[in-house]
Amino acid sequence: AAEEGFDLEDVEGAIEAAGHGPLPVLAVVGRPNVGKSTLVNRIIGRREAVVEDKPGVTRDRVTYEAEWAGRRFKVVDTGGWEQDVLGIDASVAAQAEYAIEAADAVVFVVDAKVGATDTDEAVVRLLRKAGKPVVLCANKVDGQSGESDASYLWSLGLGEPHPVSALHGRGTGDMLDQVLEALPQAPAQTFGTAVGGPRRVALIGRPNVGKSSLLNKVAGEERVVVNEIAGTTRDPVDELIQLGGKTWKFVDTAGIRKRVHLQQGADYYASLRTAAAVEKAEVAVVLLDAADSISVQDQRIVTMAVEAGRALVLAFNKWDTLDEERRYYLEREIETELGQVTWAPRVNVSAHTGRHMEKLVPAIETALAGWETRVPTGRLNAFLGELVASHPHPVRGGKQPRILFGTQAGTKPPRFVLFASGFIEAGYRRFIERRLREEFGFEGTPIHLSVRVRE
Ligand code: GDP
Ligand code: GDP
């Protein structure tokens, strides 16, 4: 490194920064209008259009990346969903429940000007049962005079209320310091069962693609309920299922079963659920209805899994209903609509007839293997050396930026850091990614490529 003009400390820092595993997850929960979305905007340090959203309007995006004091984590915002047929208490409880379940720590937001309401108390009960670390945010304390309102919230029994003005930023720094103390370095879900435990699969997809049918078909009588959720629902959340001679943990299967008919906010509720399932899983099996056009919603679900850095399998269901013409058009649609994930293994199944069910497990295993692949540094650099020699970066402004060396900083998914003598264009990065895939496989996994340029 040193002879290539990089300071050893920079190199080590870059590798460490790129090599982080999955990030810990923080959920922000509370009643409507207490300021959750405002707080999330403050935490992520930019203004997403979350506060302007009207009730009932689809909002797919529920997780954001954030950084505080040099530590990165994810934030799940539950602030986009108003109220549904369940009534206010049940809806707040239900959304909090999903968010809490996927989280490593929780910020519970209360409006200090209003004080604790019955709905707040209901959320407190959920938080107690879940046993996750909680930071209590007494919001709307815009000035000194509001501090006494905040102190009343000691009565919730969640420890110290942190007086905050999400709107103006007052107190948010202190609160975030508290959050960092509550958050584990790495998500418990991911590393808790890393050695030898069943692999965690999220079966996701838009409504009516056949998720519950597929689950019933593959699970048969072998379903084992592994945990009862704390709180409002009687549904099991994760199930152990025997498949292909192995035990798999299908996460969040309660979301797959139909339990309530939601109207308002149903889309948002579904994306929160999907995001929660993806967070808990190692591999996402995205189910699509092969008889139906690939929709924006399908694409968003795929993107969610990719952005979360999970292994990915695409399963096209209802194959029994396809005629030749539809099969032809489906292939074209896959090329145009799912061109970003050509690396994902694909299975064409029918939950009704059982067609190709036996191909599901090999596809999942392939994706997980890709996800965990580690390329030794020597092999990587031999490959990069050849690549740079045979396909040099185009000359720009009389200079030719070169990749000098690289290393794989992490797995799950594979993360690479390349060190270069000058700015590497996006097209060339994509070329490298493509060649990396050709050379080393990485089937079924997103890969991250970051480039450091010598000063
Ligand atoms: P959510 O429904 O919990 O996500 O709440 P929002 O973030 O949408 O905020 C609800 C309302 O409270 C908005 O009008 C915000 O501008 C306002 N609000 C949020 N935080 C504060 C705050 O710290 N102080 C004051 N005065 N108003 C706030
Ligand atoms: P979910 O909302 O994704 O859980 O979808 P469901 O499992 O409830 O299935 C939605 C509808 O599609 C139901 O009417 C199922 O009977 C039907 N369905 C599911 N899988 C198949 C399949 O492989 N072939 C056919 N023809 N219909 C299917």
UniProtKB/TrEMBL annotation:
Residues 24-187, 199-372 form the EngA-type G domain. GTP 2 binds at residues 205-212, 252-256, 317-320. The gene is der. GTP 1 binds at residues 30-37, 77-81, 139-142. Associates with the 50S ribosomal subunit. It comes from the Bacteria. Keywords: GTP-binding, Nucleotide-binding, Repeat, Ribosome biogenesis. The keyword Nucleotide-binding applies. It comes from Streptomyces cathayae. GTPase that plays an essential role in the late steps of ribosome biogenesis. This is GTPase Der. Belongs to the TRAFAC class TrmE-Era-EngA-EngB-Septin-like GTPase superfamily. EngA (Der) GTPase family. Pfam families: KH_dom-like, MMR_HSR1.
